[in-house]
Fold:
Amino acid sequence: MIISKTPYRISFFGGGSDYPQWYLKNGGEVISTTIDKYIYLSCRNLPPFFNHKHRIVWSKVELVKNIKEIQHRAVRNMLNHFKIKNGLEIHYDGDLPARSGMGSSSCFVVGLINTICTLKNIKLSKENLAKKSIYFEQKILKETVGSQDQIAAAYGGFNKIKFFPGGNFRVSPINLNQRNIRKLNQNLVLLYTGVKRTAHHIANSYVKKLHKEKKNEIYQILDFVREAENILKSNDYDNFGKLLHESWLTKRNLSNKMSSTSIDDIYNFALKKGALGGKLLGAGGGGFFLLYVPYERQKKFMNYFKKFIRIPFNFNNLGSTVIFNQTNK
Structure:
């Protein structure tokens, strides 16, 4: 049996510039971090004693004789991609809900590739794991997704990811001392709106417009990345929160599906009650709000948001990792 542990991510700045429809020609940059919340995937060769050949456990339990019968689209395509012949049992467990802006789809793909490659005794570097995951989502599943989430999940850490025209990327850790990392972390509040959405449906509403109608927004979003780097170096974290606000106002202009009246109401209320800024994570439309609320204001702030689920979290440097491997025992 193989068990992998793959982190969710929080994207701060640069989202939108990581779509290949943009960066393959223009380049792009994002700042993101992984956190101490994970997707766990277990996989083992299934003994040939059952009426089914494959057992896939997610929000459903699938018992099937052929790969083509598997309903979970990513699993079905993954097993075909790796030309799996033996019967497999795969279990999926996540600390956070799917379709919530935390990069869960890419996190799942990264974790599953890591797990299956380990089962097949294929060794992957972080770079190759990220590249294979990007290829799988964009070319095999043909999803309209960016490329930052796969890289974040594979590498782990608080990073700037730079995308070069042509397709290469570079991951550069953002080096802050532990005291400053802790201070920034303490000022961030993660709230679940309860609204689920499918990221590629929202992305489809604006990705094809990036080179024309929306290019000014993307250039401005890239300016925020560079400004955020300077703020992080100066340790002036309240300005980091205010910059999140400016960036969100720009990003929500990419599509009328990025936000909604109810989402805007939540955000504006948060600003009135002490938040300096924030954003919907991922492609927008719902899921998790990341809010910058100075630590000393948070107790009073949360009194107004009791109906929302707050997720405590810490920044984490762990990329996708195999935490149990009994194939050779």
Notes: The mean pLDDT is 93. The chain is about 35% helix and 25% strand. Residues 215-234 form the longest helix (20 residues).
